[in-house]
């Protein structure tokens, strides 16, 4: 992957980003969201738009989760970006609404992103799904018995953009490592009790 080429490609991708856009960035502090933000910041040098970083602390990992939130706030501050964060007891919400923790967390994130989108009169939400996520999503839906239409990749549209959906995880990690850009690791991503993690760690290899 050539980072400069990716910046230029992002600038040219039709309807991805337009001059004057205000973009809410879903920012976990993990490698994918850090890389996406770095890409957007580089693209912003050639195309006039603004970014707002939004972080959700799911309260699932105690001090580690608080560390992710602190890292995200510091990252935003050092780059001069507006920052919003939310603490949400996702496990309790999952029990209350009889959902998986994954689904409850996703619902909380999407609702908060939409809230900030409206509050800040922003135009789009940027999510950091990468190419590996697309593969995992396909296999997850296949296992669940989705229809052919349901086997499509993670969709964009409805005000959501995915600037790094074509870039693999290894490429993202390689770039951040070589550029000495820090990120946070979420140890729950290693827990194969979660179906998507099992697909990522066991099925795909």
Characterization of this structure:
The chain has 205 residues and is an alpha/beta fold. It is built from eight helices and five strands. α6 (131-143) crosses α8. Residues 146-151 have low confidence and may be disordered.
What layout of secondary structure does this protein have?
Layout lengths: L2 H10 L9 E5 L4 H14 L5 E8 L5 H16 L4 E5 L2 H8 L3 H19 L4 E3 L4 H13 L16 E2 L7 H10 L16 H9 L2
Helix pairs in contact: 1-2, 2-7, 4-5, 6-8
Helix percentage: 40-55%
N-C termini distance: 22 Å
Give the topology string: H per helix, E per strand: HEHEHEHHEHEHH
Low-confidence runs of at least 5 consecutive residues: 146-151
- As a whole number of angstroms, the C-alpha radius of gyration is 17 Å
Estimate the mean pLDDT confidence.
86
Number of helices: 8
Shape: globular
Q: Which oligomeric form is depicted?
A: single chain
Count of beta strands: 5
Going across the biggest sheet, name each strand in turn: 3-2-1-4-5
Structural class: alpha/beta
**DSSP strand content:** 5-15%
The biggest beta sheet reads: 5 strands, parallel
Question: Which features does this protein show?
Answer:
alpha/beta, five-stranded parallel sheet, 5 strands, 11% strand, globular
């Amino acid at each position: 992957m050539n980072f400069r080429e990716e910046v230029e490609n992002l600038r040219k991708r039709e309807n991805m980003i337009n001059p004057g856009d205000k973009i809410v960035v879903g920012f976990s502090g993990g490698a994918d969201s850090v890389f996406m933000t770095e890409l957007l910041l580089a693209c912003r040098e050639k195309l006039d738009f603004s970014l707002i970083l939004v972080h959700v602390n799911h309260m699932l990992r105690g001090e580690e989760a608080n560390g992710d939130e602190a890292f995200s706030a510091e990252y935003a501050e050092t780059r001069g970006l507006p920052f919003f964060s939310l603490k949400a007891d996702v496990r309790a919400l999952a029990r209350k609404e009889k959902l998986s923790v994954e689904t409850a967390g996703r619902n909380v994130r999407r609702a908060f992103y939409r809230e900030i989108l409206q509050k800040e009169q922003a135009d789009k939400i940027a999510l950091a799904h990468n190419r590996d996520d697309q593969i995992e999503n396909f296999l997850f839906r296949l296992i669940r018995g989705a229809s052919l239409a349901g086997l499509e990749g993670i969709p964009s549209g409805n005000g959501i953009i995915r600037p790094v959906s074509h870039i693999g995880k290894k490429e993202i990690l390689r770039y951040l490592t070589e550029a000495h850009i820090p990120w946070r690791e979420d140890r729950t991503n290693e827990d194969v009790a979660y179906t998507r993690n099992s697909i990522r760690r066991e099925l795909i290899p």
